[in-house]
Amino acid sequence: MSDMNAEETGSAGAGAGEGGTTAGLLAEMLRNSRLAAFSLAVIIFIIAASFAAPLYMPYDPNKPSLSERFAPPSASHWAGCDDLGRDQFTRLVYGARISIMIGLVPTSLSIILGTALGLVSGFAGGRTDFFIMRLADVVLAFPSLLLAMVVSYTLGGGVTSIFAALAFVGWAATARVIRAQTMSLKEKEFVESARSVGVRESVIMLRHILPNCIPNIIVLFTLNIPEAILNESALSFLGVGASPPSASWGLMVYRYKTYLMSYPWLAAAPGAAILIFVLAFNFLGDGVRDTLDPYMKD
Amino acid sequence: MSARPRLLEADHLVMEFGARGVMREKQTVQAVSGVSFYIDEGETLALVGESGCGKSTVGRLALRLLEPTGGSVRFEGTDLGSLSPSELRAIRRKMQIIFQDPYASLDPRMKVYSIIAEPLVTHRVYGAKRETEARVRELMSRVGLGPEQIDRYPHQFSGGQRQRIGIARALALNPKLVVCDEPVSALDVSIQAQILNLLSDLQEELGLTYLFISHDLGVVRHISDRICVMFLGRLCETGPTEDIFRTPLHPYTKFLLEAVPKPDPHLRKEKKALLAGEMPSPVNPPPGCRFHTRCPESGDICAQVTPEMRSFGARQAACHFIR
Ligand SMILES: Nc1ncnc2c1ncn2[C@@H]1O[C@H](COP(=O)(O)OP(=O)(O)O)[C@@H](O)[C@H]1O
Ligand code: SF4
Ligand SMILES: [Mg+2]
Fold it and tell me: What is the ipTM of this complex?
């Protein structure tokens, strides 16, 4: 609660490997796993490059240039040009913003929703638990892509309904993990210790259970982001994704699939971008999980 | 001793847990089956018995951290079962617990300050944070923690130091009763004495009343005024500590005393009488006297009739064959 020695405890937490601050745990992960550290660097680089794009990119991502339609990759157009003569590499760099948004926004929504429901479900038990878990079962019973399509279509399409659809299919898995963690945490002696001191049940849940779920939440977060990006790509590919001109990478693959035989680089470049981004998040998620695992087990 | 007012009185406490067996069939664990005792202000009552006999459950029932299946607990004359949740939270100021496992009982994501301050904050003891912090520092120094440790996390401490944090937290609200649930059995032998001395000093200084739980009669010899010996959910014998050590009445007490390490290694070896048979399970406790399957002195009646507690001077014991 006192924040006078935040630095000292941050570094101290890093040394021990169990308990302590989240920042300390992350620092330890970066030391333990080169792959995770490298992946984090790649992700940060992509995000920074994309948001700083207007500062250094020579082309406008949306300005057509008829003379350069379908120009192949070259020194001036690294990834060639598309059917309207727009620089493909510029569009990729700008498109990263959309993919990041699609990774972060619905994932954040589903993590918040799933954590809240999982926490209440595991802590309250009984009927509340039964009801929430059956709801989660229903959501998980359908293929997530199909469910997301239905929800997105019902809400009328567009970026907002994609976000809502992805959050809707994502919360159930999170709720299950957080519920299991809550149920194991609430049997711990430190919870009984809080009770013995006279702390209210609702305060116990927020002050003692929730903070001890943070490692799980971080893992879920890093692993859910690539899933959301992939799902959005698939939705775009199926024609129910974000609408142009806010072109996401998934939408770019969808649009250029017609030219797959004649101008293969058009679909290949955004495909590769998705692959790199998703892999980086997966490696990062694995690294976080491996570092936190000994802690989560006890 | 009789001048001391009664602080806590437990009357025929029963605790049954629902559990699942190997085949997932429903079972009832009879953890505590009719335990009565009292504790007077300022004294230390020791509760002794083998692991799994129900000591911790009794401790939790005494503080109403568990709701008993049967029986009642009176604290300063108030039936804890009659209190509303908010009244119960309020009365918790006066009764605290020190846990056996100093690793599991401290929230791993809280700093020492927050751990010790939590009771003070919960009961809004001080208006200003400065006062709370002053009290936390005072408690830390009293239990032997350095002021620089206030911003550390539990995992940065040894078991003994963690137990000191737990003690400081338990004392923060100036409680009357402290249940010490095997506070030293998870610690190195070299540290046990330090913590026991600290607990004795604190008791003297603050006029605390202890319910001191231990599986080792040797540990409680020097700190307890009276002892309750427990076997498989029931009390076997209670009485003043010296009497129990000088002339144990109940066969189980005798067995426990023989297990206490003797200074003379020859004596120790000779006396290591093992009990016959396996430890019976609280799921299927033996009928009659629960000790009869292992008791070297048992007779025919023991398997049929449950022995009642009977008084023998200052002592009480539950065995058919004590005269
Ligand atoms: N919450 C619970 N649920 C089911 N069984 C329990 C629970 N708590 C304790 N028990 C059982 O009750 C018995 C007594 O446990 P406990 O009071 O912890 O014994 P002790 O502290 O003497 O070692 C044991 O058989 C234990 O398994
Ligand atoms: S009642 Fe019988 S079995 Fe029980 S302790 Fe006495 S002699 Fe042993
Ligand atoms: Mg115990």
Answer: 0.90
